[in-house]
């Protein structure tokens, strides 16, 4: 926790290469995105070909690893 009880936010950016990856990660009507947001105390925003994860350092890193793993599985066809 930062000074005076203020939590320091971390931002992690992950590149999405195409609309198929975007759909696989975000889900139809962003349903996967909402599930991630509800499960973890962080904000996940899709901006063009990039996902932006904002939250405390530990949560942003954890969600970043989750998204990277989902991208890997999608790219490997699993």
Summarize the entry for a quick read.
The protein is α+β, with helices and mostly antiparallel strands. Helix content is 46%, strand content 26%.
Distance between the termini: 38 Å
Number of alpha- plus pi-helical segments: 3
Largest sheet properties: 3 strands, antiparallel
Radius of gyration: 13 Å
Give unreliable regions as ranges.
none
**Helix percentage:** 40-55%
Percentage of residues in DSSP E strands: 25-35%
- Which structural class should the secondary elements be placed in? alpha+beta
Identify the overall geometry: elongated
- Residue-averaged pLDDT: 88
Which features would summarize this protein structure in a list?
78 residues, alpha+beta, three-stranded antiparallel β-sheet, 26% strand, elongated
Reconstruct the topology from this structure.
Layout: E1 9-15, H1 19-26, H2 31-39, E2 42-47, E3 50-56, H3 57-75
Antiparallel strand pairs: 1-3, 2-3
Explain what the structure shows.
The chain is built from 3 helices and 3 strands. It has 78 residues and is an alpha+beta fold.
